[in-house]
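We both want to read discrete structure tokens more fluently, so let's practise on a single case. Would you write everything just below, so we can both look at the same thing?
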Amino acid sequence: MMRLLTVTSDARLSANIASAFAGRAACHNEAGIADATRLAIADDFDAVVIDGAVASGPGAQIIRRMRMEGVATPVLLMLDVNVPAARIEAFLIGVDDVMSREFLAAELVVRIATLIRRCHGHSKPSVEIGALRVDFEERRVFVHGRAVDLTVKEFAVVELLALRRGKVLSKENFLNHLYGGMNEPEVKIIDVFICKLRKKLARLGAGEMISTLRGRGYVLREIAPAVPRARHVPEQVAAIGLQ
């Protein structure tokens, strides 16, 4: 499950965003600029949705601070009106996308999902890693073209690993992604998910793609296909073949 930080003092807008992502993301809203800025910089959110004017509003302050601190978390800004000058200013200060405050829930979900994928280097709705293919839109996983029977939580684990392939993810990273800080179980549940995933993926021929780094977490790596070893041909036999 994704984690979104929304920044608005409009209770209706906050509720509408949370409703749009029901079952897909855990939304945390902050109305205060100082707290919102601190969380956007220090916490591990997948995306930030900010309500406010760009040129002189508080939203600009948050975005500028994020980019100054080197935080690449995607930001979507919500404007009251579709003013080209405001949209241009938004992109200039580091916003990744702009939408109207009067939005369609389905469009908002698609835009945020696209921003997150692009942030992690995936512009397409699916990614292939060796024999593994993860379809983010259909929320399905395939190995050698065969669908893997996964639970919702198991898919979320694969999703995070695929989005950040090659990077070591701690168990806390997984808990945040799966539960968004709400009703989190014991951290050992991640070991259980990983164990089940490995068995399901290996059963269809994916191999040991999920590696354990003791004391640090897990990482998804592409496994190069095995290269068959050339058989040793005795010199006498080779000579006969050349005659």
